[in-house]
Amino acid sequence: MNAFLAFLAAVPILNIECARILGVIPVASYSHQVPFQPLWKELSLREHQVTLMTTNPVKNTSLTNLTEIDLSFTYEIYDKYNFTGIISDDSKSFMEMFKTIKVMLEEAGDYQFQHPQVQNLIHNKEVTFDLVIVEAQLPGMMTFSWRFNCPMIGITSLDSGMQYHLAMGNPVHPILNPDYNLPMEDPEDMSFKDRVVSLLYYLGYSFVMYHRTYPEVQKKQRKIFGNDVPHPSTLHDNMAMLFINTHPIFHSIRPLNPNTIPIGGGIHLKDPEPLPKDIQRYLDTASEGAIFFSLGTNVNERMVENIMPRVLEALGEVPYKVLLRTDKKLKNVPENVLVKKWVPQQDILRHPNLKGFITQGGLQSLQEAVYNGVPLIGIPFLGDQVANVNRMVKKGYGIKLNKKDITKESLKEAVMELMTNPAYREKAEELRDIYRDEEVPSLQRAIWWTEYVIRHKGARHLRNPVVDMPHWKYFMLDVFVFVLALLSLLVFMCFRIIKTICKLFSVRPDHKLKTQ
Ligand SMILES: *[C@@H]1O[C@H](CO)[C@@H](O)[C@H](O)[C@H]1NC(C)=O
Ligand SMILES: *[C@@H]1O[C@H](CO)[C@@H](O)[C@H](O)[C@H]1NC(C)=O
Ligand SMILES: *[C@@H]1O[C@H](CO)[C@@H](O)[C@H](O)[C@H]1NC(C)=O
To answer: Which ligand neighbours the alpha carbon of 59 most closely?
Structure first.
């Protein structure tokens, strides 16, 4: 009877109805926004009331439980600072890049917090939430969890920065898990130079983050939210859970605590839809195989201006049809190349005649290609693209070309190698079978764990005690000192005993000597 009552009492808790969820994805980048769009949609269809701060609102009126706060003006601020140009410009020093991005993010943040609807979230005491889901990128945004005094889930469209892994108690080892932005030649077997770089990066990043950036962020947040806002590290150390967009095919293996949920199985992958008629016809007739060329949305036209003429020359000389996506008006387009401004990339990669994909190596493009068993040529430009493409080469499902080395000959050679050597496709198909073999689809997993955090009010039982542990305790310094002291005492005592015994035995010989 008691058990039955307990069961009844548990039902309303387990059946969380209509939780109020705030999503905050402030980074103006299509690839930061698109992986989570299915999550917001699905949560709202499960009758949760979702409010979302986003730079890419989907504005689907049939999703009545999804309220979007449109921050799309953030793109204009990024453009003003030439964001994508700066981070891919090899002539700029790291510090120069870092400073510009810092100023840019500050300006963007100022405008985002000043947005009337965001101001309402901050100041209207009647607004409450049961959960906030915040992109684990800009620490200031985590203040919303403090404002609403509710559990927080961090979410990333790539692997996560080291501070968030540390906040979950996951190991951050500069040799086993170098930062995802470092352009390592082979992240699984790093050279001595890369290992030195990785360690220095780790130390520098930690110092700048915790001792330079965070105090400034806190100051700013106190102006916006009030004078009690805690240090950003306190906020992220209290995160209930972290969702990371990683998968063993695309990232290094890392041991994860149960509060860190990988959702890298292609959470953004859509169900197939019919292709536009002209593209369908174009690919259907490409029985000798077709190639898709697209450098994604972050690589802007200014960056590819000087390579495009050579790319077109090379593609004009290969015996395959090429579908090329670009926003730019191109001159001298060869006959076998079809240029489009916008294309449904996932459906194109699904087409059976599509045999190769030339990409910048963004994570989502790689996920889509592997999901469809399509081998690639990677031309990395920025961010994690270099590491992604290096890993792709190591796994054997693609070829890397440096953007500096692109000539008509090198690209043509790479295309011919990709299309005529079956090894790349075989490898891509092998990985496709691994990638599709998921215990639970990533979207379902994300939903389940989101509701789990709501049901269990932050799921504190999954928290790793290491997060609150001082370094001396973690590295057992006190224990070592104690054991060393004990050992020293032991050695000292043994020494004394031996000395005493020696004395006892040496007394007699001494004696004898003297008496003889
Ligand atoms: C929105 O949520 C309400 C319950 O809060 C539910 O009745 C309704 O069906 C939901 N609408 C959609 C489109 O999911
Ligand atoms: C809006 O969402 C509904 C419900 O999932 C979906 O059926 C519809 O296709 C969406 N509309 C657009 C324009 O995406
Ligand atoms: C951005 O790039 C444009 C064109 O290359 C240049 O005129 C402008 O000064 C740049 N702006 C900044 C802030 O670097």
So the answer is: 2
